[in-house]
Design a protein that fits this description.
The chain is of the alpha+beta class. The chain has helices spanning 2-24, 55-58, 70-77, 122-125, 261-274, 291-297, 315-319, 338-346, 406-412, 431-434, 454-462, and strands spanning 38-42, 45-48, 81-88, 103-111, 117-120, 130-134, 140-149, 154-158, 184-189, 197-208, 218-221, 233-236, 241-248, 256-260, 280-281, 284-288, 305-310, 326-330, 333-334, 353-360, 363-370, 372-373, 399-403, 421-426, 442-446, 449-450, 469-476, 481-488. The protein has 3 domains: 69-278, Thrombin, subunit H (Beta Barrel); 280-373, Pdz3 Domain (Roll), CATH 2.30.42; 396-488, Pdz3 Domain, CATH 2.30.42.10. The strands form 6 sheets. The protein has a 6-stranded antiparallel barrel with strand order 3-4-5-8-7-6. A 6-stranded antiparallel β-barrel has the order 9-10-11-14-13-12.
Length: 492
């Protein structure tokens, strides 16, 4: 009996001890005590000194971030992204040594409406004679240039939606003004030929200046952007396009830049209606009023844009603007920085008027300015003319062929039993080039009919009508293999 009572007492003591630990620990959570908060009490022992106020009482904890599912974003957006292939018979302007010749470039783009409009970079299609877009399923379609704005490196293309054979996948345009530094974004494009690649990073900086201080407003991101990503979408965690991937830093890895989509939205109506963008222009050089300028020029609390120089024979000179004038507002809208003023004026149509609130020698006055059109940068590339079909003197499919004789076979290292016709030249702006036909290939058959001579080749192509698809069975001596390439015949 005594032994039973002793066991009961021991169990009660253990339970009481455990309950005491739970209570002392504040509900089972033992607080962390940093080593610096320990004080000596006796040799070999340590007791907590006065604990610091918990950090959660000094600064409320940030809410836990919700997961960002870019796999879902990519799944929804991928189909709206296209590969853009631009080729030209001649370079848009001379390069070193005065050499001139065919040019080929590739980039990305994305559908913005069901009518087949595609946004991309201007530098992707600059000077192109032929533009081909490739859909996510591999189909290649001819595109035309609707308009271009070299000043911010944007181009608007279009395809015939009927040629796509169904409803087009459309990217949703977001609001780039809502972006914050540190926000997650992803880029989709065709870097280095790796089609529909997805990279993820964060917004590193907003409003970066790169080429034109008056218009540049780039989004900087560490989402990997490489050659071939140009023109593709920068997408936020909601799956909305917030920018067009445009440039990369040549001096560092993972520093890329995108045009804010709101800047593109502002010029879209003009691109669709006129094919070009006309911007308002005053003709003054501006600087943001800084604390140092306020102190040096005794401007008081004034904010705005200070006039540094007035160009001769410009709206600014005709309106009477002078150096040291501080422009505080435009038509009642406050001007905080010089960028604010430039964006406001650039968004207005040439010929319209603007009322500027100006501080001059400590006194405010209104100046009415009739805007002119912003001059084009003489160093900027010109807007390309609409793409035109190859003229009648071009060889069929843009491919010049010759018959394979003994000398030709020996020169190109072809097997003696190859047969067919050899591709001697390919027009880079032709449907043959789009089909990946290359110089040195041998065309063996067209639509499963043998091609033994140049006449056979011309007859097989001549009977094709716009919309027909020809299957070219070719031998590639470089790869030492045969393959089937499809060429779609285009109309005039």
């Amino acid at each position: 009996m005594r032994r039973f009572v002793a066991v009961i007492v021991a169990l009660v003591a253990v339970v009481a001890f455990m309950i005491g630990l739970v209570v002392a620990g504040g509900g089972g959570r033992v607080p962390h005590v940093p080593s610096t908060a320990l004080a000596r009490n006796a040799p070999g022992t340590a007791v907590p000194a006065a604990l610091p106020t918990p950090a959660t009482e000094l600064m409320p904890a940030l809410p836990l971030a919700t997961g960002v599912d870019f796999a879902e974003v990519a799944a929804r957006m991928n189909a709206a992204v296209v590969n853009v292939d631009a080729s030209a018979r001649r370079r848009p302007r001379e390069f070193e040594g005065g050499r001139d010749g065919p040019r080929q470039g590739a980039g990305s783009g994305f559908f913005i409406d069901a009518e087949g409009h595609i946004l991309t970079n201007f530098h992707v299609i600059e000077g192109a004679d032929r533009i081909t877009i490739t859909l996510v399923d591999g189909r290649a379609l001819r595109a035309r240039v609707v308009g271009a704005d070299p000043a911010i490196d944007v181009a608007l293309l279009a395809i015939d939606p009927a040629a796509a054979g169904g409803a087009l996948p459309v990217a949703v345009l977001g609001d780039s003004d809502r972006l914050r530094v540190g926000e997650w974004v992803c880029a989709i494009g065709n870097p280095l030929g790796y089609v529909h690649s997805v990279t993820v990073g964060v917004v590193s900086f907003l409003g970066r200046k790169l080429f034109d201080n008056s218009l540049d407003d780039y989004i900087q991101t560490d989402a990997a952007i490489n050659f071939g990503n140009s023109g593709g979408p920068l997408i936020d965690a909601r799956g909305h396009v917030v920018g067009i991937n445009t440039a990369i830093s040549s001096q560092a890895n993972n520093i890329g830049f995108a045009i804010p989509i709101n800047q593109v939205r502002a010029v879209l109506p003009q691109l669709m209606a006129r094919g070009r963008v006309a911007r308002g222009y005053i003709g003054v050089t501006l600087e943001t009023v800084t604390p140092a300028l306020r102190q040096a020029l005794d401007l008081g609390p004034a904010t705005g844009a200070i006039v540094q120089e007035v160009t001769n024979d410009t709206p600014g000179e005709r309106a009477g603007l002078r150096p040291y004038d501080v422009i505080r507002s435009v038509d009642g809208r406050a001007v905080t920085t010089s960028d604010d003023l430039i964006r406001d004026v650039s968004s207005r149509a040439p010929g319209s008027t603007a009322r500027l609130r100006v501080v001059r020698d400590g006194r405010e006055q209104d100046v009415i300015v009739k805007l002119a059109e912003r001059p084009q940068d003489e160093t900027a590339p010109h807007v390309p003319s609409p793409v035109t079909p190859a003229d009648a003197t071009q060889p069929p499919l843009g491919i010049t062929v010759t018959e394979v004789d003994v000398l030709t076979a020996r020169r190109y290292g072809l097997p003696s039993t190859t047969g067919g016709v050899l591709v001697r030249r390919i027009d880079p702006a032709s449907v043959g080039h789009v089909a990946r036909v290359r110089t040195g290939m041998v065309i063996l058959e067209i639509n499963r009919r043998p091609v033994r001579s140049a006449d056979d080749y011309r007859r097989a192509v001549a009977v094709a009508r716009p919309g027909d698809v020809l299957a070219l069975y070719v031998y590639d001596p470089l790869a030492e293999q045969r393959s089937i390439l499809t060429v779609t015949i285009e109309g005039e």
